[in-house]
Amino acid sequence: MVLGSRNIGFLLLAVLWLHMTPFVIGVRLPPIGHINTDEALASDTGSVLADWSAGGGGAEPDFSYPQLRPSTSDQQQESAVRELVYRLIPDRAVEFSFSVSAKLLDSAGRDLFTVRASSGHVHIEASTGVAASWGLHHYLKYGCAAHVSWDSDQLELPRPLPDFSATVRANDRFRYYQNVCTVSYSSVWWGWGRWQRELDWMALNGVNLALAFTGQELIWRRVFTQIGLEAAEVDHFFTGPAFLAWNRMGNLQRWAGPLSDAWHADQLTLAHQIIARMRELGITPVLPAFAGHVPQNFTRVFPDSNITQLEPWNDFNETFSSTLFLNPVDPMYEQIGNLFVAELEREFNGTEHIYNCDSFNEMTPPSSDPDYLAAAGNATLAAMTGADPQAVWLMQGWLFLNSFWEVPQAKAYLTSVPTGRMIVLDLHSDVKPLYGQFDSYYGQPFIWCMLHNFGGQLGLQGTVDQIVKGPFEGRTIANSSMVGTGLTMEGIFQNYVMYDLMLEMGWRKSSPDVVQWAADYSRRRYGPDISNHTTMADAWKFLITTVYNHTVKSVHFHGWFEAVKRPELISSAPPTDVDTVLMSLDLGHIGYFMVTSRPQLSPYPALWYNSSDLTAAWDRLVAGATADQVRAAANLRHDLVDVTREVLTGLLTTYHGRLVGAFSDNNTVLLREEGAVILELLADLDTVLNTDKDFLLGAWVKQAREAASSEEEGVQFVYNLLNQLTLWGPRANIVDYAAKQWSGLMRDYYRARWRVFIT
Length: 759
Hints:
Blueprint: H1 5-19, H2 74-88, E1 96-100, E2 112-118, E3 121-126, H3 129-142, E4 164-169, E5 174-177, H4 182-187, H5 192-204, E6 209-211, H6 216-226, H7 231-235, H8 244-248, H9 261-281, E7 284-288, E8 293-294, H10 298-301, E9 307-309, E10 324-326, H11 331-347, E11 354-356, H12 370-385, E12 392-396, H13 407-414, E13 422-426, H14 439-442, E14 446-450, H15 464-476, E15 482-487, H16 496-503, H17 514-526, H18 533-547, H19 578-584, H20 611-623, H21 627-632, H22 634-664, H23 668-689, H24 697-707, H25 711-725, H26 745-758
């Protein structure tokens, strides 16, 4: 059975029907087969937490973290970079040479690269493979006006290669990449080919610390069966692939599962490939750790364990949420955690000693007593150090946005382990930095991160001023413990310019002139053959200073934009002043979309920029290149579709306002006329999206099918992706949070929903 476009349309219509009704139909998928359980481990790993320095022993922390570097030799990393060049520019690779020496690292562990180009040859000397790749990309950008992105490059290099000279020292020890949700929103269906490109992109952008979460479910199955659970009991806990991020954080269980043996095997193979390549390039893989979340039948084996059933997450019922949480002060917590780390070490021939653990992500701890929180934090690290005495705990700081975490609670948790044994990701520094509120995390090192995106939604937005100033402020506050910059977006493949700019904050010594930077960006991204670069630069001047630079401090993005907001009616005229609109809405975030959310009544949506600035940019993008040039330049075609999409969704706001007026006046004739215009606009939007491969639902569906090992599993995987994009749960629990303005989805789901609403 092959799911063709007609089948996908039927599935979307089914989802739409479920969405527009107050009940849903349960979906049953066959369980995977049993596996033999291992003998239960008899010994207790205990707690190991002695005085520590990065070198192992002593009391003073060493923020250079030498033990977190991959064990691959300089020669191995140098060889890996040469292979990267042949993948990236095979016809010009012989014009580049590299030398890698860890001796170039400074006392803070910061990378360095030197680029020397003359007489058509480029030599790059660097401290690590990552730094050498970073130097290569620096030369391509600033020596050759080339561009590398997540999915499309512009690599029209001059002949001969231009002379060039640069020496760059990294500002910090780390450049971090990924959110724990990114794997579910963007990379869940990837195979090795796509992962290989992503790893190259990481290295080229200087990323030297990144999550490596793929394949962990099979390791968890081994651990839980070792302590006495049946394999079927463990398998019953896992969600489907598209929801594993929230299963791993204890938010969900079972939903859209199970996972097949073939999935487990494929993912573990992929994990080996990812981790091996990271090590070769000099990227430090961050592996998962035990966060206390256990399968439902855990109490069958350990009836006296200190277990809390968590509150439902986002209105999921107990079948799919309300997971069991093993209290960190229970001795079994350390035992399970250390069994898991030991299993990781066996599977991957050791680790790089850094592990991500988020026990209380979007969940309230069982007690607010600082003594309890201190004990919980101490036990969390001890659940790593029993197996790996050099372990460092990487924690997302997202939990501290919860009002539960007042100063006494946060300080107790953060200081529960020796300084330096925890690194905090200040996850939303681009809008809501917390390092100032918590006194630079009371000395624990932190990484300044740009979150920027929620759910992988499409919509032009950003905080340019904060991006080009915030990292410098983070380094200079009193008692700053900042050790890096990072990208922590929930989904990729959107707002490419923001990530290109943020990645440069890892080496820039001062804030750039963003207007000039954007002009140079457009030249690099679109290539030398565009007829009018001045016009393109003007387009980006409008975009970078308005659309990409919201500055209202009390409002932050959290996943909703004009084009994806549910169709709504209001009975009063909207305010026209942008700041008044934003400040008057108690939204917590801005940019509510309309197109891709369920129709109902709610406040009038608002923009943080003047729509005339967007249309001015659009006019210039259209005028700056010929039709043939647009066809030949993939990046320009992508951006033109993306900005056109934004303009059309903005027009929807206008026609929605007229629809509201007709409704208020009880003018049924005008109501039908404006409704017809909206439906025509949405049809046009789908047509525009269909002109570029980056905006097609079918591409995502194809990846899901290819990841499946059987026809039945292919149906399950497509259901996973469609549910995530639309209902996000069995009863529209987080409806439209991961909405995508893609052709196919726009036509068969969002427009169909608007048609139901209007008629």
